[in-house]
Amino acid sequence: MSNQRDLNAYIARVRQRLQLRASVRGAVLLFAAALLGTVLAVVYLNREAFPTDSVSRARLLLVVVSAAAAGFGIAWPLLRLSRQRAVQRAEAQFPALEDSLTTFHQRQGTGADPFIELLAADTLRRTEAAPTTSFAPPALLLGMSLAGVLCLLALLWLIFAAPGYLGYGASLLWRGEQKSAQPLYGLHVAPGDVAVRRNSDQSITAELTNLQPDMVQVFAHFAGSDRGWEPAPMQRQASGSYRFTFTGLPQNVEYYVAAGPLTSPHYTVRVVDLPSVKSMKVTYHYPKWTGLKTETEEHAGDLRAIEGTEAELQIEMDRPLKDGNLLLDSGKTIHLTGGAGNRYTGTVAMVKDGAYHVAATDSGQTVRMSEDYFIATDKAEEPQIALDKPGRDYRASPIEEVGLHVRGLAQFGLRDMHLHYSVNGGADKDVAMLRQPGARNADGSYTLRLEDYKLQPGDVVSVYATAKDGHAEAKTEISFIQAEPFEREFSQSQQGGGGG
């Protein structure tokens, strides 16, 4: 066995051990730098509410810092760790080698040396006191590895699971903006670009997300004005939003909203000259089942009628109107037709409560022409029906004549009222009780002769009543008439319980 070869193998192992130590230390430096850089960047960006341009710059800086940490912590130490440097590190750590390892390294490179083998044997004996594991002790490697793993896990937790602004910012820096993720901070301004009639008012609202600034301001610049941007505070509403109203706008105005670190895009309120509403007339076409005649109201606006009514509006303008509409709060648009005499017509189907206003379209933008008018729909009451007599379960003799009385009520008149009875669950028999169709109140009586059905004690007659109007039906609960033996009926009658 060659002493030179063994000593060279020893030097190679020392170098590998030092490279391992440098690699682990560099990885720890890389993960720690990425973690610390991420936290510092997120804290800074949070103060600015994560603006897009700042996020891009912070992401670039984070990449540069991570690359620098990888270069100076891993690549550079590994490149510098040559065989000669490994020998120098070994001599520095173990003075007992007495420069013998350095001498061997230098003389080995000079060519044939008759004493090199003896030098190698002597140096090998000295290296017994300098084991290769001592250049990267396992405990040290384990400690640095744990530190690196903890830094990496902390960084991954920030990116994928951390709550609050830290998690949002870390994910934004490392993963970019996710389509499914909502921005942590937001400023939504409504209505944005809008057109209004000259000298009318226009309200601006701003809704904030996860922000509570000391002040929210709207900045406005009026067309033709040389005063520049004029700030005005927005008033906080009970709902948490902020509002400002431009009153009597005579000209176009450009505006934007500033809330803490956030600034909205610039919008324009465009002022246009459009006709005004002079008067409104409404004709109510009630549902046929109500039996109500068509009614017309002058000087109308707010609509109130039974559910299902068609409200035909005739709107008179002070001059011709182009592309007029009725806009419902549900988002539905009803186009106005006509134009003769500056009168325009539109029909609103009254199916639920709501509101509407008159509007026009100018240059592709919707312009409000009137205030909001309310739509109030009254629910039709269902018909009412009662079986007054006997009114409850009743016991009778098999030959008794039982008097039945039915009473009905309907808001828009009864169309049908019947008494129904069945003997021992047999076929349903019904008796018409309505004498005058269309009556709002009606009652009727009928005598049920139990003798006709040859009842036996224990037999049961079920009774109920129904009533219908034009759109609904109601019925009573079922009452039962039970046939009892004569003796029991007689005894109950003596005690005042009967009711034949």
Ranges where pLDDT stays below 50 over 5 or more residues in a row are 489-500
Task: Bin the strand percentage.
Answer: 25-35%
Largest sheet: 6 strands, mixed
Mean pLDDT: 89
Provide keyphrases for this structure.
500 residues; alpha+beta; 6-stranded mixed β-sheet; 30 strands; elongated; disordered C terminus
Summarize this entry quickly.
The protein is 30% helix and 34% strand.
Topology:
Blueprint: H1 3-47, H2 52-80, H3 83-93, H4 100-108, H5 116-127, H6 138-160, H7 164-175, E1 186-190, E2 194-197, E3 202-209, E4 216-222, E5 230-233, E6 235-236, E7 242-246, E8 253-259, E9 262-263, E10 267-272, E11 277-285, E12 295-297, E13 303-306, E14 309-317, E15 324-328, E16 333-335, E17 337-338, E18 343-350, E19 354-362, E20 365-368, E21 373-378, E22 384-389, E23 394-396, E24 401-409, E25 416-423, E26 429-432, E27 441-449, E28 460-468, E29 473-475, E30 479-483, H8 486-494
Parallel strand pairs: 2-10, 13-21, 23-30
Antiparallel strand pairs: 1-3, 3-7, 4-5, 4-8, 6-7, 8-9, 8-10, 11-12, 11-14, 14-18, 15-16, 15-19, 17-18, 19-20, 19-21, 22-24, 24-27, 25-26, 25-28, 28-29, 28-30
Helix pairs in contact: 1-2, 1-3, 1-5, 1-6, 1-7, 3-4, 4-5, 6-7
Written overview of the protein:
- Helices cover 30% and strands 34% of the residues.
- The chain is built from eight helices and 30 strands.
- β28 and β29 form a beta hairpin.
- α1 packs across α5 and α1 packs parallel to α6.
